[in-house]
Structures are given as C-alpha cells and as structure tokens.
Amino acid sequence: MNEQTESLSEKLLQRAAPGRVDFEDMVVVPVFAVIVALILGAVAMLATNVDLATIGRSYVALVVGSVGSVNAISETLTAATPLVLASLGMAVGFRAGLFNIGAEGQLLIGGMAAVIVGFSFAGMPTYVHLPLALIAGAVAGGLYAGIAGWLRAATGAHEVISTIMLNLMSYRLVDYILRLPVVQREGRADPISRSVLDSAELPRLLEWIDPNLRLHSGLFVMLVAVFLVYWLLFKTTFGFEFRASGANPEAARYAGMRSGLIIVIVMVFAGAMAGLAGANQTLGVLGRATPGFSAGIGFDAIAVALLGRSHPVGVLMAGLLFGALEAGGRQMQVDAGVSIDLIAIIQALIIVFIAAPLLVRKIFPWGFQKETRAGKE
Amino acid sequence: MLELQKNKVLALISGVGILLGSTVAAADFTACQVTDTGGIDDNSFNQTAWKGVLDAQETLGIDGRFLESQAETDYEANIVSLLGGQCDVIITVGFLLGDATQAAAEANPDQKFSIVDYAYDPAIPNVLGQVYATDEAAFMAGYLAAGVSETGIVGTFGGINIPPVTIFMDGFVHGVNYHNAEKGTNVAVLGWDVDSREGLFTNNFDSLDDGRAYAQNLYDEGADIVLPVAGPVGLGSAALADELGVDKLKIIGVDADLYLTDPAKQHVYLTSITKRMDATVLDVIEAAMSGTFEGGVLVGTLANGGVDLAPFHDMEAMVSDELKKELDVIRQGISDGSISVGG
C-alpha cells in the first residue's frame, strides 16, 4: 500500500518537475490543453442544451470578464495572487521530490494567524503592523507544514498522507479558533473573526480609479515571491540541493546532502508560501476570517504548479490563467447565464490534458516535432 | 459614467466585441441576484429567492440574472461584478452576505440593493432588508412534531449558528415545549439548546453528506422527526429518511414546500416551514420599478403570509383531526398575539 503510493507519487513528481526545460512540454502542451478543454467545454454545454449562440456569447464573456476591462484585469489578478503564492511553495516541494497536498491547511492556518495579528495591536503604524501580520501568516503556515516535513524526515511517514490529515485537522482547528471569545466577533454566534485593523490591511491599489476595484498590494508580495523562488531554486546552493534530492535522492545523499534536513526546510518553505497566500486572502480580500476562506485555493494550487511545470515563471503564467478563468467565469454566468460549474469542468479538463501530454501529442501530431521521447514513459 | 466608458474602450481593444454582450439586455429593468454557497438549484433557500425573480420575469417582463457563490470569498467579487449599471436592483441572498452587501452599498449609494435575511441597524438608505418571523411557523411545526412523534424525541440541526437559522430552531423548540405544557407530554428536542445558544451545526450550507450523517446521529439517539435548517444539506437527511422508511424517520422541510420542490423524496416530508422569499423578492422588484423603493426592513410574518406551514400532503392521515384543529387555534393565537412564540 505504502509502496504503491510511493511509486505513484514518484511518477507524478517526474511529470511535475521535469529534468530539463523542454519547450514543447512547457509551452506547446499547455496551450493545446487549454484549447482542447475549451472545445470540450463547448461540447459539454451543447450536451446540456445550451444553444450555439449562447456558447459563443459565454466565451466572449470569458474573455471580456478576464481581460476586457480594468475591473476584469483587477479581478483576474486578485484571484491569481493567492494561487501563485500557494503554488510556488508547491513547486519547490515538487522540485525537491515532495508531494505536498497540505497547502489548503497551511493556507488556513497562515491566514488565521495573520488575522489574529491583524486585529490585535491597535495603534501600530502600517509599516510595522502589515509586515508583522504577513510574517505571522508565513511562520504559522511554515510551522504547520513543518510537522509533515518532520514526520517524513524522522519517521518516514509519507507526506501525502500526513498533509491530507493535517488539512482535515486545520478545518476543525480554524472552526475552534474562530469560536474563541478573543477571536470571535462580538455579537455573533457563528464562527467569524474580528475585522482586521486598517493598519494591517494590504492597501488596495486602484481605489483612485474606482472604489470597487479590489486589486490590492498582495500582488507585489506575489511578484517578489516569484523572483525569490526563482533565485532560490536556480541561483543558490540550497536550491541546487533541493533539486538534486528531488531528481535523485540516493545520489544526493552520497554527495553528502542532508536529506532529512532538506525535507524539513522544503516543507517549511512550502508552508510559508501557502501561509502567505492565506494572509493575502484575509488581509487583502476579506479583512476577516470565516471557516471557508481557503475556498479550495490550496487544491487549485496543485493544479497550477502542475500546469506551470514547477517553474516559478510557469507557475505565474498558470496562476494568471486560473485567475482569468475564475474572473471570466463569473462574467460568463452574468452575461450568458451559463453555470459557473462549467468553469470547474474546463479547469479539470485542462489538468487532465496537461497530465496526459502523450494524449495531447496524439491529438495534435502536427504541433510537435516528429521525434518524441514517448518510448520512455 | 466615465468608468463605464473606460471599460468599453478597453473591451473594444481586447477585440472580440462587447457587441455580442450588449445584445443580451432586452428588458428595461434588470434584477440581479447573488446566491449563497448552496447554489441556485438547492430546492430550498436560494431557489426560493430566485423564484421571486423568475415570477417578476413572468409577470413584470423584467430581465433577471444571477451569480452563484462557490465559496465565502466569492460574495464581494460577485457583487462587484454586478456593479457598473447593468442591474437596477441587486438582491443578495443570505445573512453571510451582510458585510459584503453593506460595503458595496456604502461605496455605491446610487445602486439599489436588497438583502434576504439581514436587517441593518441603522438602516442604509439604498438597502432594503428582507427578514422573516420564521419562529412563528416553526412554533407550529414544533407543536405538530410533538403531536406526531411516537418515540417522544424529535431533533433539529442547523447549517451555521446565525440568527436566520437559529430562529427556526428557537420556534421549533418552543412549539414542542408548548405542546408539552398544554397536553402534559414529555417530548424532548435534540440538537438545540435555546438558553446556551449551542447545538448541532454542520458549519456549511452545501454538504448533503453532512445532512445524512447528522440525521443519522439524531435518529440513533431516538428521534423520529428531524428538522434540518441548512438549505440543501437537508436533502441528505431526506435521502436517509427515504432509505429508513417514513414510519421510522420523517423530515420537516424549510424555506420552500419541499414536497413540491423535491419530488423524488416528497413522501418523507411531514410538512415544511415555508419562508416566502419569492413573495418578498417580488415585492422589492415591484417597489424598485415603481419608484417607491426605500431602504429599511421588510418583515414576513404568519399574519401577512411571509412565513407559513406547508400542507401535510401524503402525511395528511398521520395528523389527527384534533391536532389540526389545535394548530388552527395556535395559528390564530400567534397572529393576534395571544400566543408568544418566544417561549
């Protein structure tokens, strides 16, 4: 049983973190996957008795709603920011050979910690309070993920299992924390936290154009993180050690790398990124915490990391695509009355095709060079 | 207005025609609705509110649009995407949208809003809250349940511990207690403690699995009638009742008459506590169209038909004529104020 999961996740990891940058796998496959998914999405709509005109209108709405106006771009970026952050942590994990399913839980714990710091310490200036709240989110998320890393390093407990379990625990933990008198909003019986103070909120960026534009400065946190992860992975010894132990743990050990320590560090880093994503949601978007604030971002982040081939820039692109799908999907529903569930179907289809590059190569043989490494898989 | 133009220019730059988009709006008046996480087809809460827009579409010839919230993070985003002038009134459905609606209403004082299950104090001039005295109908349901129960134990559970949910549970418990006091019975209610404000909650409004598991727990503790107050979650409880058989477990529906909206499992519903959000939503749309719209609160009661107890349908025979007469007396008493549903 354990061996099975082991080999399965190894295969997945191979796909998620390819050994060398391959233009076809990095770019051509995802582009075709998106196209096929959109076509199949149209077929799904046809099958549910949506007429062709509505399908056309809904795809127009998808484009308009994701990049067609200032508000659309603002919404796309707002949705993409936490996805990219959480997914960066995921990507580092993949590179180091760790399949961390726990971003959802780490995001919840991180976001929760950020809120608690965010509503405490009244009177603190923004330039102290906001960084403090963000750091609290990263630290809490990192420590929570560190549990799984330590379990793996010290006892060999597989991180897939332990992070899933930690996710389940985080849901109840957040429910519990939200009901504590010091956290729960006064006058409310349901689990909802106090509001984050203005001094800890991530300032909105476009309020001078229109107060309804939600884009906030978490965007910069995200961009810095993309750069940081790129630098860490490809320009530092640590990054080399991460990648080496992901590519071949045995060889890495022979080369004198301390694999146990690397596992813990990578997990803590991944958790910190997810925690930042959570802090980004609670400090930038919601201004409070409720049980559902993670909204599945931690799971979508797995897909984003896969789609981005665990490369920071790829993750950024994939995150923007998913953000655009979310913002555009909303517009699809408003303009064409098409169910938002369809967007979930299209996202799922994209992932299916990304995860099955051979299938994409079969469907579009003319899109690829003749000589493929198909025999290897 | 400037913003709108800017949007249009950018939309044109992006290529593929706002043209197609603008052909959609045909009617003069557009009502837009943002649902809670249960979804537009939940057979109860959101669906009932959406029915109000559909009714308005039919009788008043308006255009209706909706946006489903997939998660709590969607509330604000969904409301924002309906701003910009395409909606004459934006109706948000559910207590949990209270903060997001308030923020949007204050930032856009010219946009009319209406929210189901939330009353602002002090009132916001461009928001009309729709609230319901559901405890009045729930009181009757509690009395009925106490009269019909054979095990002497009935149960309830809620979605999230918020006033529009617990008001059902309060009324239900008080109705059972009233039966105990009047008839000398000793029926117990599981799942809600009126005084400590604690009880059974699924903490979501969308998991049918939870609805099943919570009803199973109550059934295992001896309850033969369960009142799930959690929108579509209750459909899971109905599925359990269907499997166990209605002689073992009956369900009391909420929001809509679930006998009608859930035809596949209609035989398991003893009755439903209806909350006529469709009627109040229609009222709000009419007011907005005729220009009489103003911020404040609209209250649905047993007396004005805003809340009610649905017919027993297939269970007609299980409710004795005596009990039916008593329920009529109670209805009268609640309407004229001689019976207090507050316990």
Structure in words:
- The complex is a heterodimer of chains A (377) and B (343).
- By secondary structure, chain A is mostly helical.
- Chain A has a domain at 86-309.
- In chain A, 72% of the residues lie in helices and 0% in strands.
- The longest helix of chain A has 30 residues, at 126-155.
- The radius of gyration of chain A is 21 Å and the shape is globular.
- The model of chain A is unreliable at 371-377 (pLDDT under 50).
- With 343 residues, chain B is an alpha/beta fold.
- Helices cover 43% and strands 19% of the residues of chain B.
- Chain B is built from twelve helices and 14 strands.
- Chain B has helices spanning 2-13, 18-22, 45-60, 74-82, 98-107, 134-148, 163-183, 208-220, 233-244, 258-261, 277-290, 321-336, and strands spanning 30-34, 63-67, 89-93, 112-116, 127-132, 153-158, 188-190, 192-193, 198-199, 225-229, 250-255, 269-275, 296-300, 307-309.
- In chain B, the strands form three sheets. In chain B, strands 2-1-3-4-5-13 form a six-stranded parallel beta sheet, sandwiched between helices. A six-stranded mixed beta sheet of chain B has the order 7-6-10-11-12-14, sandwiched between helices. A two-stranded antiparallel ribbon of chain B has the order 8-9.
- In chain B, helix 3 (45-60) packs across helix 11, helix 6 (134-148) runs antiparallel to helix 12 (321-336) and helix 8 crosses helix 9 (233-244).
- Chain B starts with a helix and ends in a 7-residue tail after the last helix.
- The relative contact order of chain B is 0.14.
- The chains are: A mainly alpha (377), B alpha/beta (343).
- At the A-B interface, helix 3, helix 4, helix 11 and helix 13 of A face helix 1, helix 2, strand 2, helix 4 and helix 5 of B.
